[in-house]
Every structure is written in C-alpha cells, then in structure tokens.
Amino acid sequence: MIATRELTKRFKSVTAVDGITLEVADGELVALLGPNGAGKSTTLRMLTTLIPPTGGSAEVAGFDVVAKQREVRRRIGYIGQGNGAGHSQRGRDELISQGRAYGLPVRQARARAGELIESLGLGEVADRTVSSLSGGQRRRLDIAMGLIHAPELLFLDEPSTGLDPQNRANLQEHIVGLRREHGTTIVLTTHYLEEADSIAERVIVIDHGRIIADDTPQRLKAKHVGDRVFLGFGSETDATTAAGLLNGVREGDRVQVSADDGPRMVPGAIEELRTAGVAVHSVEVTRPTLDDVFLTLTGRSLRNEEA
Ligand SMILES: Nc1ncnc2c1ncn2[C@@H]1O[C@H](COP(=O)(O)OP(=O)(O)OP(=O)(O)O)[C@@H](O)[C@H]1O
C-alpha cells in the first residue's frame, strides 16, 4: 500500500525527514511514534501529496506521490492536526459536502454520511452545528470526513492529541474498528506511548527524521529491553547465591534478573534455587514500556517530551 525509498524533506537548514525507506502492506495498522519535531507530520504530509519530497520517492496505493497526486488523493483519507470541519454547519451537512467534493452523487453522499455517523457513534449529535460538539465528537467527525469516499488508506496525524482519556479511548476503539470491519489500512502518528502500544500492531519509531526501530510493540520491547524479574530472599547470603546461579544483580536481599519473558522464567528459576537450598520469598516482574525502548535506543525519554 505504501513504499518509500530514501524519502527526504529538507526545509532550508532543517532536514525534517532524512531518508526514510519503508513498506506498509494492505490492512496494516501502523503507528509512527516519536518526539515533537521528529518528522512524523512531515512524512505524512509527503505521503498525502500535501508537500513534495526534496529527495527519494514514495508510492502510495500504487501511485507516485509527485507524478500522480490526483490518483493518490482519490484513494486516501487524511485527517490532519487541525480541525477540518467548518463550525457553523451541521455535522451531517459537512460530511455530505465533503462527499460531494470527492465527486460522490448527492444520494450516495447522503447514504455514506449516514453510515459513518452511525458507525462512529455520532447519531445523536450529527444534526447539531459543529461548533457545539465536544472535542472527542469533533475528532470523530473529522475521521468521518476522511472516510467519506471510502478510501483504502487512512492517514491520521495525532488523532487523539488534546482529548481527555475517555474520549481518547473511545476514538482508539473506532480506529481499531475501522480496520477490523473495513480492512482499511491505517497509518497514524502519535507521541502517546500507550496509544502506539495498545492499538498499533506495528510501531515505527522515528527520531531526527530517521527510522530507528520498526516492529510489533511486543517484539520491540522484548528485543531492546526485556522483562525484569525481582526476587526477594530471606538473607543477603541467599541473595548472593541466587545472583550467582541466575546471573543476576544483587541489591541487599533482592536480586534483579533480565529475561525475554519474565513470567515464563520464574517457575524454572524458583525450582533451580530450591534445588540449591535457597527459598524465594517474593517475586515481582516488570515489563518494559515503549518508553524504555526509546530510552534504550536514544538515551532520552519520550515521556518527558510527551507533555
Ligand atoms: N514548513 C516548515 N518549514 C521549516 N521547518 C519545518 C517545516 N515543517 C516542519 N519543519 C521542521 O521539521 C522538523 C520535523 O517536523 P514535524 O512536524 O514533521 O515533526 P513531528 O514529528 O510531526 O512533530 P510534532 O509531533 O510536533 O508534530 C521540525 O524540526 C520542524 O520544525
């Protein structure tokens, strides 16, 4: 669905996107994750033909984003950071006008608007003016606007920024539902770690305009950080024995061990220690977050930049 090669965008002295090569298959739900200024929006803006690359190339839905802009635009939906819908119109009318702008006959535009209103849970508010909608409702209306022409591919730039946690969760559910029910390929940008972790099956981590990691959230965490298992003992002597046997690090009467899959390694470790005459008093497993992955890869925390 998407194939880029060394895609690059320079703004005078700033290289916003620095040679990105990636492929996205049909039906994938991909999150581009990175701190402010990493180049996520610029990447999306090139893929949606809003700005031309200064280097490299990209094909979207089978068409070159420079040579075949119209073909690309017809096949994609794009929901930018700003709010696309006008404020004094009713939500339903906005949707119908948008459908007309994409060339749908009025009857089809009406039918499609009705379907989207239903599936995005906007039934009760669609006939109110856009300015009276809550942030979450407006964001869902934006998504409906991006979907009116039934695109194969939907780009969402920071869809949940500015929403409260409940509206954010609700929106995420709708995004996952779109993929599930219509097979829409979805590429979104986010700097919310939990969002990338929970809804995307593939996370592309971007920093300084480059891809620094690209995998499922689970594999990123297992590969770059792993689980940490903390075992507590009755004495420092036991802890020292355990640290030697399990190749762990002792702190007082506790031992920290790294593991790809903490919960799975614990029973074997307890058994091994018991055979050696060492009783385990407590067990705690901590699993990494995508922030730990980012920290390992860059030495910086995304969480600090999230605010
Ligand atoms: N029109 C422009 N002119 C000059 N510099 C720009 C322009 N657009 C973006 N940049 C710069 O390019 C870099 C990448 O910006 P971009 O908006 O793509 O980042 P981002 O990862 O989407 O961040 P955010 O989460 O803040 O949107 C930044 O340094 C930004 O200041």
From TrEMBL:
Where in the numbering of this chain does the ABC transporter domain appear? 2-233
Kindly state one GO CC term assigned in the UniProt record.
Answer: plasma membrane
Q: Which UniProt keywords apply?
A: Antibiotic resistance, ATP-binding, Nucleotide-binding, Transport
Its record classes its membrane topology as:
Peripheral membrane protein
Molecular-function GO terms, alphabetical: ATP binding; ATP hydrolysis activity
Which InterPro entries does the UniProt record give?
Answer: AAA+_ATPase, ABC_transporter-like_ATP-bd, ABC_transporter-like_CS, ABC_transporter_ATP-binding, P-loop_NTPase
Q: Does the keyword Cell cycle apply?
A: no
- SUPFAM superfamilies per UniProt: P-loop containing nucleoside triphosphate hydrolases (SSF52540)
Transmembrane parts of this sequence: none
Q: Which domain of life is it from?
A: Bacteria
Q: Please give the Pfam families that the UniProt record associates with this protein.
A: ABC_tran
- Please list the GO biological process terms of this entry: response to antibiotic
Tell me the protein's name.
ABC transporter
Name the lineage.
Bacteria, Bacillati, Actinomycetota, Actinomycetes, Micromonosporales
